[in-house]
Amino acid sequence: MSVKIRPYRKGGYEVDIMIRLANGKTYRERRKSPYSSRSASLRWGRERERHLLVHGTTPAGQTTAGTDEKEVPTIAEFADRYMEGYAKANGHKPSTIDGKEQHLRSHLLPAFGNKRLDAITSEDVQRFKAKLSELSNKTINNILATLNTMLKCAVEWGEIERLPVQIKRLRVHNPSMDFYDFEEYEHLLTAARAIGPKQLGFVLLAGDAGMRAGEIRGLHWTSVDLSRRLITVERSEYRGEFTTPKHDKIRTVPMTKRLAAVLGELKQAKQALVFTGGGDVPITQQVGRTWMGHALDRAELRQHGPHTLRHTFCSHLAMRGIAARVIQQLAGHSELTTTQRYMHLSPGASEAAIAMLETPPPRRDAPARGDMLETASHRPPHTP
Q: Which residue of 105, 279, 284, 381 lies most exposed, with the fewest beta carbons within 10 A?
């Protein structure tokens, strides 16, 4: 038995599978891999090899005595295998797994549950998009991504020979990021301070350190260095489970003096978590939203979730002229393009460029600076 991979003449890779059947005969199968990378093609070939060994093979146009043609499972029948063998087996974060399960339960199974994996058509997908039109394009694309990875898994695991449809995603326009301006943010801090140190600490960790809500809930005192005023963002919490931050980007963020002061006030020797719902149990998502909501009500500001304070953090840095790369590092963005969504707020470069239009234009007959220097160097020395 063997699985060999070689470059395909028209691009991609050819998978060459050779096995020995139960009747002692050798069976060879060569086909183009549905994947573009060598490693994924090899995994697909090995899955195909196992499929042939378990289920046997039927030459085109014939049937094998005593062997029934394997029936392709439906989306509903394949869903649990996909979640266990793909999402959970690949160590996806709990929030990602919950999102995929929500996509299946609320959208994909009602629309495609009774359809075989190989029976989904382009028209089916387009009709499905139309039914989801009330959702944002980003949300629709996330749901389509779950369907697409399911179908790719079915190919890799030998349930279907090729992808039945090429799924086209919708165009997503970057939305404007709402944030609290400098005066509003100070009002919010005043309101949170009046409620209590926990509420103030929560707001400052989001607005002065740019931490996500899950990162705040997962913050341990071992990650807080009050003497050097540094926070290491290395954990995120979701429904009681601790993982690494989004995109696995662990980062260190300096603390403002006011953040260090309130964390020093909250510090307790026997408490592992900065914010706890009792013992070593983290606060829930709802507790964080409630703290934020009470502070916003007291400050008489528009209601938003804690993530708006992260937008406020990035926006205030940009408005103070901080470079995009620095903001990216502090916020833990995986792509600079995410950070650049805030950079239109930076007044420095744009205003300086426009101001240059109001300066006198260069004279055409004026010597260049280099020519002036050269003339000066060849001028004879002055004699009294």
A: 381
Q: CATH number for the domain including 241?
A: 1.10.443.10
In this structure, are 47 and 196 located in the same domain? no
Q: How far apart are CA 202 and CA 306, in angstroms?
A: 9
The answer to whether the pTM exceeds 0.85 is no
Q: Is 275 helix (H, G, I), strand (E, B) or coil?
A: coil
126 within a domain of the structure (yes/no): yes
The set of residues, in sequence order, having a beta carbon less than 8 Å from that of 218 and lying 6+ positions away, is 235, 236, 237, 242, 273, 282
Residues 49, 90: one domain?
no
Place of tokens 């954990």: 235
Residue segments in the chain with a per-residue pLDDT below the cut of 50 = 59-68, 370, 372-377, 383-384
CB atoms within 10 A of CB 219: 26
- On the 0-12 / 13-18 / 19+ scale of CB atoms within 10 A, 196 is middle
What are the tens digits of pLDDT across the range 157-197? 988 988 999 999 999 887 778 999 999 999 999 999 999 99
Whether the CB-CB separation of 341 and 324 falls below 8 Å is answered with no
Residue spans of alpha helices (H) in 29-74: 38-55
